[in-house]
Each structure stands twice: as structure tokens, then as C-alpha cells.
Design brief:
Blueprint: E1 2-10, H1 16-20, H2 23-26, E2 30-42, H3 47-50, E3 53-60, E4 63-70, E5 73-75, E6 78-87, H4 100-107, H5 109-112, E7 116-133, E8 136-149, E9 152-165, H6 168-179, H7 191-200, H8 220-237, H9 239-244, H10 248-267, H11 276-311, H12 316-340, H13 343-355, H14 359-362, H15 374-395, H16 401-420, H17 429-461, H18 465-487, H19 489-497
Antiparallel strand pairs: 1-6, 1-9, 2-3, 2-7, 3-4, 4-6, 5-6, 7-8, 8-9
Length: about 500
């Protein structure tokens, strides 16, 4: 059995020629080029995919090789998995699989007897062998080609850095060296996953945050690592949609991912290694600024302007103002798409991935009597966040929108924290608390959108008197709703003062 450790990166097809000229590749001790045809197999009910098993035949030259893989771990494009290889002699032979449970499962008639081709890849691969020092060897594989399934076809363009010997740090260091010149974001979807999606014709959709499988028995640093990796995956799974689609939900989900990661950095700040957050926060802040600008114009158009334009369809001033806003919206989308294609975005993700693979996270310090368990840590941080919300509620004033905005941010941070620690909350109390907080956040968010809309609308209207009249029309149309939201603030503050934290529970081994 071989175990492969590789970092998979996306690369635009038009950047291959530039990458080939990178000085680091000129130092390669060996260079090869192959044309690889691969056929992937599964049963009609996709039993292998559901079991996390991959079966592939690959033609290289005149011979075919059978490969069985089992996906074990994949975070931020870094994959670790066992592989079993054997020559293919016109029939599948699983005797090379030394995992007896897996081998027996593959040899069952309902698996081995029902295997059929699902999809195919055809790629040109260039491989460089790099030996940056006496202890390190890295294979750099540049793939370009296509994937086909069920009469459908899609292009492939990937860069894989496979660690043959040396540390994971050296792998990330080389990736960051390449990413100084090229946009190389981590690639989360493997060729196999893309093949299955193409086979089923699965449409691309925005991805929302999922549950993080933390365990109360883990150390706080280990829990943070899982949470941060989940936030980074959430971010990257929406990247392609944000770059290629006009659906604003992709940008929104990327913004949520960044906010969740920022909240996690704040919450786990007391236990994070010195200087950790400082390496991530500045580029995160820059990315959040671009995402925020695009999102603000999306909200302005969809939730502030469109309802009024629909109610007053014959009002030309609204049509003209909507046109001016649309111009700024498209400009903001163009700006964020450009930023997401730049090396800086890749460097942020690779830096975060590298930091999370280091000793404090993968080998947390031995727990001492003075160290907090995750349960104790979570309890203290949740209580601190609730205390902050209560202080903000006491300071909130209906006539001072910034105070309500700060309260909304506090509620959002507590909501994220409860979501993060969800596996440690028994029953449905966590879900109920999240729902309650989300409702409060939503209403305060509507107030904030209305309060900030005026400034944005006036920026879009400029000095045009007719467009400024349209801004007045919009303000008047939303006036009743704004007043109703303000009138309801005392009730919301009463609800906030009555908030109770869900109980945390140690999981039984």
C-alpha cells in the first residue's frame, strides 16, 4: 500500500505557459511528459462513491494500471489517502488491497459483479521532480485536458504538488513560492468528484456553511483547526461561482465564510499561537472589503430599490436611478472577480492551510491541570459573548443606528459560536437558540440596511436632481416599514435581555 500526500491547486488554462517559465521549475532534477487516459468505475447505485472508495484504470503508454483509493482526509486541497496499485490483466484483481475489510467488500458479487465505467479523463501531464534540499523531494504535476461522462464534457486544468519526502511545511513553502506569481487557489473538488457531478449533471449551486464535527474531548486548538478549515472550505467552494456567475449568493456565502472565520479567530484568540491571527487578518480584511462592496450593492438593488420600482413601474426617475446603481453593482462585481483571480487570494488560503498544519494544531500541547478543556473553554467564551450582548443591549438607542448595528454584530458572533459548538449541545436547544438569534439578527439587519441605504443611494444619484428625487421617493416608500422596525426595538431588547445559553455537555466515550 502506498500513501499519497498531495496539495492540489487550480490553475487557469491561460496561465500554463507562464507557469512553465517559473524559475523554480528550471531547477528540476527530472522532467517527464505523459498522455494519460483514465476510466473510473462504480456500480449502478454508486456504491463505491458512497463508501468513499475510488476505482480507476489508467492507460500510460501501452499498458493499463488498476488503482484503488480510499479517501481519508482532505482539507484545503491537501489530501492524504492510501492507494493500491496493480497491473490490469483484462479483469479487476483486488488481491493487492491489504485492507482485508475493503478487499472483501470489493470482491463481493454485488460490487465486483456490477462495476461499469462512469466517466473518463484524458490529460496531458508534465511532471517535474524537485529536490530543494537533501531531505525534501516534491513531484510537480501540471495537468491539462478534459473529463467526459454521459455525453457531457468539461475541461481540466490542475496543478498537484506531491510530497515524496520532507515536511508538509516544505510543500506549502513551495506552493507559496509559485503563488507569488500565479493565482493557484487550493482545489477542493477532485477529478473523481467532478466526474461524478458531470455524470449526474449536477448543477453548480452556492454552498452554505455546514456543521463542524468537533468533539468535546478535543483540545481547544484542535477544535479551532476544524472550524477554521471548515470556514476556508466554505469560502473556496463558492469561489468559482463568484467568479463566473451573476448569482449574488456566491459572494454572500464567501462573505459569510470570512465573517465566520473572523469570529472564530476572535473567540479562540486566547489560545492561538502568538502572531497567528496577525498573518491572516490583514488579507482577510482586504478580501472582506471587496466582498462587502459587491454585497452592499446587491442588497441595495434587491431589497431597497426593486420593491419600490415594482410598486411604481411608471416612475422614470426610479428607472434611471436603478440604472446608475446597476452600473456600480457591475463595477463592484468586476472588482471582486478580479481580486479573486489574483495571487493574493491564493496566498491567503495557502498561508492559512500551512499554519493549520503546524504542531500547535495537529499535535496540541499535553493537557495539564491548568489547561482548559474544550467544554470549559466553550462555556467561558459563550458566557463572555452573552455578557457583551447584554451590555450592547443596555447601550442601544433607537435614535442612534450605530448602537443597533453593534448589537447586531454581537448577536451574530454569539450565533456563530453556538453553531461552532453545536455538537456539544444536547437535544434541540442549540437549534432553538440559533433560530432565536437569527431572527433578532435579521430584524436588526433590515434596520441597518435601511439606515445605510440613504448614503449609498445618494452616492449613486450624484448631483442629478431627478435621481435625488428618486432617492426621496424610495425613502418615503420604506418609511413606514422603517418606523415599524424602530417601534419594535424595545420588544427586541426585552427578548435579548432574556436570552439564555444552551447547555453544553461532555460526550460519553
Amino acid at each position: 500500500m502506498a500513501r499519497q500526500l498531495a496539495l492540489k491547486l487550480a490553475i487557469a488554462e491561460n496561465r500554463h505557459s507562464a507557469l512553465l517559465r517559473h524559475p523554480a521549475l528550471a531547477t528540476a532534477s527530472a522532467r517527464e511528459q505523459h498522455q494519460l487516459v483514465s476510466i473510473y468505475y462504480d456500480t449502478g447505485r454508486m456504491a463505491l462513491r458512497r463508501a468513499g472508495v475510488l476505482l480507476r484504470l489508467r492507460k500510460q503508454g501501452a499498458s493499463w494500471q488498476q488503482t484503488v483509493k480510499r479517501q481519508e482526509e482532505s482539507h484545503g486541497g491537501l489530501t492524504q489517502r492510501p492507494e493500491w496499485h496493480a497491473p490490469y490483466m483484462n479483469h479487476f484483481d483486488f488481491s493487492c488491497v491489504d485492507d482485508t475489510t475493503l478487499r472483501d467488500w470489493l470482491q463481493r458479487d454485488k460490487i465486483a459483479g456490477r462495476l461499469a465505467a462512469v466517466f473518463e479523463t484524458n490529460i496531458r501531464r508534465i511532471v517535474w521532480q524537485l529536490d530543494p534540499d537533501t531531505d525534501t523531494r516534491i513531484l510537480v504535476k501540471l495537468d491539462r485536458g478534459w473529463i467526459a461522462a454521459n455525453g457531457r464534457r468539461d475541461s481540466l486544468s490542475e496543478l498537484e504538488l506531491q510530497l515524496i519526502s520532507g515536511s508538509i511545511d516544505s510543500l506549502y513553502a513551495f506552493a507559496l513560492q509559485l503563488a507569488q506569481r500565479h493565482a493557484l487557489p487550493p482545489l477542493l473538488l477532485s477529478k473523481a468528484e467532478r466526474g461524478y457531478r458531470l455524470f449526474h449533471n449536477t448543477p453548480q449551486r452556492p454552498v452554505k456553511a455546514g456543521d463542524v464535527p468537533i468533539d468535546s474531548a478535543e483540545a481547544p486548538l484542535a477544535a479551532f483547526r476544524l472550524i477554521a478549515q471548515d470556514c476556508l472550505s466554505h469560502l473556496q467552494l463558492n469561489h468559482d461561482g463568484a467568479v463566473t456567475s451573476d448569482d449574488p449568493e456566491y459572494v454572500h456565502q464567501m462573505r459569510v465564510a470570512m465573517r465566520r472565520l473572523r469570529a472564530a479567530l476572535r473567540m479562540f484568540g486566547p489560545v492561538l499561537p502568538a502572531g497567528f491571527a496577525e498573518q491572516l487578518v490583514p488579507p482577510m480584511r482586504e478580501l472582506m472589503r471587496g466582498l462587502g462592496q459587491a454585497r452592499d450593492f446587491d442588497v441595495l438593488m434587491a431589497e431597497i430599490v426593486v420593491p419600490v420600482a415594482n410598486a411604481l413601474p411608471d416612475e422614470p426617475r426610479l428607472t434611471d436611478l436603478a440604472g446608475a446603481i446597476t452600473d456600480r453593482l457591475y463595477a463592484a462585481r468586476t472588482d471582486i472577480r478580479h481580486a479573486l483571480r489574483q495571487p493574493g487570494y491564493s496566498q491567503l488560503l495557502l498561508t492559512a492551510g500551512s499554519l493549520l498544519q503546524r504542531t500547535p494544531f495537529i499535535e496540541p500541547p499535553t493537557t495539564s491541570d491548568e489547561s482548559l478543556s474544550l467544554l470549559q473553554f466553550a462555556d467561558r467564551r459563550l458566557r463572555r459573548l452573552l455578557k457583551k450582548i447584554l451590555e450592547l443591549a443596555d447601550a442601544a438607542r433607537v435614535d442612534y443606528p450605530p448602537s443597533l448595528h453593534q448589537l447586531r454584530i454581537g448577536i451574530k458572533r454569539l450565533r456563530y459560536a453556538i453553531e461552532f459548538f453545536g455538537p456539544m449541545i444536547p437535544g434541540k436547544s442549540g437549534t432553538a437558540a440559533i433560530k432565536r438569534l437569527a431572527g433578532l439578527q435579521e430584524e436588526l439587519g433590515q434596520l441597518n440596511d435601511l439606515a445605510s441605504a440613504g448614503t449609498l443611494l445618494m452616492v449613486c444619484a450624484g448631483r442629478d436632481p431627478l435621481l435625488r428625487e428618486a432617492v426621496t421617493l424610495i425613502g418615503g416608500w420604506h418609511g413606514q416599514r422603517h418606523a415599524a422596525l424602530l417601534d419594535d426595538i424595545p420588544n427586541k431588547l426585552k427578548l435579548i435581555r432574556g436570552l439564555k445559553l444552551p447547555r453544553l455537555e461532555q460526550k460519553q466515550a
